[in-house]
Fold these 2 entries.
Entry 1:
Amino acid sequence: MEYLQKELERIYWLKMRLTSRLLMKSVKEEHDQASASGLKGAAPE
């Protein structure tokens, strides 16, 4: 039973880390897109 508990905790933490990394990635991409469009607007070519 204890083994199962440890395994569940491990899976839980892996999922948490993966989720937070995906969230950070999507936030960063949005930020990059926003700054890219801001740069385009600031310097018309």
Note: The longest helix spans residues 2-42.
Entry 2:
Amino acid sequence: MPIHEKCKKSIWATARQDVTAFLPCRHIIGTHDFKAFEGAGSPRAHTTRRVIHADLVKDHEGYLIFEIEGDGFLRFMVRNIVGTLVDVGLAKSTPKDFKRILLSKDRNLAGATAPPQGLFLMQVNY
């Protein structure tokens, strides 16, 4: 795929990030209240969700790919998690900050909402 096509489907493709700083994605595995990562106007009854799998992998071209699997997601939840993980990867915050943000239930502490480019729904299980 030509690089200009790949960049249309990815976010922060040129940002130099510390991959080991993405270890906080492990903090979201399990059942948690994800209110800190909920987007405004989310039509939900509650903000507790279960994340079964969350990982960051590097593909053969060097792109970082965030994978997440759960029993349901809040509006913009994944994009807000990614935006916050990017802040950790760019050393704007720390892995401890990420955990504190998750536990705080305060959206104002989380990172920016990642743009939708590069976000793909891969599979739905029932």
Note: The chain is about 25% helix and 15% strand.
